Amino acid sequence: MPEVIYYVAASVDGYIATMDGGIEWLAPFEGTDEDYGYAQFYDSVEAVLLGRRTYETSLAFGEWPYPGKPCWVFSHGNIRSLSTDVIRTAQSPAKVMLEIETRGLQRAWLVGGGALAASFRSAGLVTEYIITIVPVVLGAGVPLFGDPGPPERLQLLDAKSYPKGLMQLRYVQAEDD
After folding, report:
1. How far is residue 33's CA from residue 27's CA, in Å, rounded to a whole number?
2. Whole-angstrom distance, CA of residue 126 vs CA of residue 129
3. pTM of the shown model
4. Could you tell me if 111 and 47 are in contact, meaning their C-beta atoms sit under 8 angstroms apart?
5. What does residue 2 show for φ and ψ, rounded to 5 degrees?
6. Using one digit for the tens of pLDDT, what is the confidence trace for 28-57?
7. Which residues, 6+ apart, have CB-to-CB distance to 85 below 8 Å?
8. Sheet containing 71-74: order of strands
9. CATH class for domain 3-173?
10. Confidence tier at 4 by pLDDT (50, 70, 90)
11. Where are the domains of the chain?
């Protein structure tokens, strides 16, 4: 089965967006000489997984942010597409991962949102978490995981701090003792 990496930025209090889905709180940390490992990470993935609201937010960027990679958007309704690489699906995460495997793809980026991340986590499909903690307290918003799921013990593989106060944590599932 292909790897699924939940690579995401979160506020100190565990939110990935404001209540209305906004990500403008990330702006002070963007546009610097530091990309927080994004380019290397993006080059390492072969597929992109998004929920409908996260997809709609990405459309507002003007230029399609995931060029050259097949992108599955989880939605029960129709979506507007800016790229032929976008595939709308109402299938379960497990079925989409089988489709990705059939295509010979090995690494998928779970962009979000929180509800989609929770469904992948509940199905046991997330193989790695790369969470960048941003030094902002939002107070409310879209949580890192939309719904609680089963407990999952993780093992820290790497922790990297950045000059603007961001901390990037990389976890995999802990091996049984």
Report:
1. 14
2. 7
3. 0.93
4. no
5. -65, 155
6. 998 778 889 999 999 999 999 999 999 988
7. 66, 67, 68, 69, 70, 71
8. 86-89, 71-74, 47-51, 107-112, 3-11, 128-134, 167-173, 154-161
9. alpha beta
10. very high
11. 3-173
